[in-house]
UniProtKB/TrEMBL annotation:
GO terms for cellular component: cytosol; riboflavin synthase complex. This is 6,7-dimethyl-8-ribityllumazine synthase. 5-amino-6-(D-ribitylamino)uracil binds at residues 18, 52-54, 76-78, 109. SUPFAM superfamilies: Lumazine synthase (SSF52121).
Length: 157
């Protein structure tokens, strides 16, 4: 018996609001690329959290609802002088990986941390464009992993 695989997928995009102008570039480019590859904008739900550290727990809570096929995490973590930004980014990524493995739901990361960032026009423009690229890449990767998982599920049945 031939199994059909639904192409309707729900994607949660969790975005941190620190440096929202930069993070929003990834979210918008994800949505643009998602539709460019033939998917529906209505597949995407955008959820805001204050900062990057809140993303893993929120991802876990959203996945527990059973409403999402994948989660995309978006944040821009910079050195604020209080603690090392690489520690925060590493903690977030470790948490996301744990949630992904514990739940079996794909989580894609657009949680990026630069070695050097200053709130100058040049740096802001550079990272806004970089997040556009990363949003597009995340959309393509999300579609690919969902298709791979769908094929896996069909072959198991």
């Amino acid at each position: 018996m031939l199994q059909t695989v639904s192409t309707q997928k729900r994607i949660a995009i969790i975005r941190a609001r620190w440096h929202a102008n930069i993070v929003d570039e990834a979210v918008q480019s994800f949505a643009d690329e998602w539709t460019a590859i033939g998917r529906s904008r209505s597949d995407i739900e955008i959820i805001d959290v204050p900062g990057a550290l809140e993303i893993p727990l929120h991802a876990q809570s959203l996945i527990a609802t059973g409403s999402y096929d994948a989660v995309v995490a978006c944040a821009f973590v910079v050195d604020g002088g209080i603690y090392r930004h690489d520690f925060v980014a590493g903690t977030v990524l470790d948490g996301l990986m744990r949630v992904q493995l514990d739940t079996g739901t794909p989580i894609l990361s657009v949680v990026l941390t630069p070695h050097h960032f200053q709130e100058t026009e040049v740096h802001v423009r550079f990272f806004e464009q970089h997040f556009v690229t990363k949003g597009k890449e995340a959309a393509a990767a999300c579609a690919a992993i969902l298709e791979a998982r769908a094929r896996l599920m069909v072959s198991v049945m």
